[in-house]
Amino acid sequence: MQTVEALKLVAMLVAAYPSWKPTEETQRLYAGFLEQVDYDAAREVLREIIESPREFVPPVGLIISRARERMRIAERDRQLAVPRKYVLGEVGTIRKVDDTWLTQRAICASNNRASQRKS
Fold it and tell me: What is the residue extent of each domain of the chain?
């Protein structure tokens, strides 16, 4: 995350907790730690914290650990994602040919005798 983005998140905390009057040094400290994580993950964590009945500003370590957990889950989900095999609209054109499921496009493009068969 960029420094500017981290400072936006700190400003979000200052606005959400009006009784918190951090010094410039404290704001830089929070921003420095927040730069270590993804902006979107940290922003979502802050939104959850702000929406909770929490009365005081959360420690920066709590924000960082929750953001890292979100990032870890997002990376795991990305790695486990199964790539889509079919173009939208092809789902209804899937056929079984010689014990293999094929889309209509694959059947038409093949030189297989089974592609000449009627459904």
Answer: 3-80, 84-119
